[in-house]
Design brief:
The chain is mostly beta strands and 161 residues long. Helix content is 14%, strand content 35%. Strands 1-6-7-2-5 form a five-stranded mixed β-sheet, with helices on both faces. The chain has a three-stranded antiparallel β-sheet with strand order 4-3-8, with no helix packed on it. The radius of gyration is 15 Å and the shape is globular.
């Protein structure tokens, strides 16, 4: 298994190294649940053969050349989980240096979308509560996002009804 040891993540960086990979990720809260700490959000398991295989992460992926983060978010979520976000807001950026690569993780809170969530690439999907997150191995770059959600007084309150 590849090492994930690296420098500490940088939250909302002012600048990043030129040799980074820009990735978008979505925080998607389960529809129709009451506003409470029991709300569930979606995670996906990384596939074998990819960097950090078998880790669980927020759905998303790499930006393509000339693509904005919003365009990448729409494309990646449609390809990966079968939905088209129609309303989302930037949540948090995390810059993380892994031994093999540098990642700028651009997370978005998806507030509205069309379609039904399904595994479009054969990956496992899970709806989990914040209280369950420690049961899953998440990439180091995702951990500050989890902490921000946990520490927010509004955890899950900006999601769909």
């Amino acid at each position: 298994m590849p090492s994930t040891e690296a420098e500490s993540p940088v939250i909302n960086p002012v600048s990043v190294d030129e040799d980074h990979i820009h990735v978008v990720a979505a925080i998607i809260w389960q529809l129709g649940k009451p506003q409470s700490s029991q709300r569930k959000f979606l995670i996906a398991q990384r596939q074998k053969g990819k960097h950090l295989a078998d880790y669980w992460e927020f759905p998303g992926g790499k930006l393509e050349l000339g693509e904005s983060p919003w365009q990448a978010l729409q494309r990646e979520l449609e390809e990966e989980i079968g939905i088209m976000p129609t309303k989302a807001s930037p949540y948090l950026q995390v810059y993380h240096r892994y031994p093999q690569r540098n990642i700028l993780l651009d997370t978005w809170l998806v507030e509205e979308y069309r379609g039904e969530i399904v595994s479009g690439e054969g990956q496992q999907l899970r709806w989990i509560e914040l209280s369950q997150v420690d049961r899953y191995r998440l990439p180091p770059a995702d951990l500050p996002i989890i902490e921000a959600i946990k520490n927010s007084e509004k955890a899950g309150s900006r999601c769909l009804p």
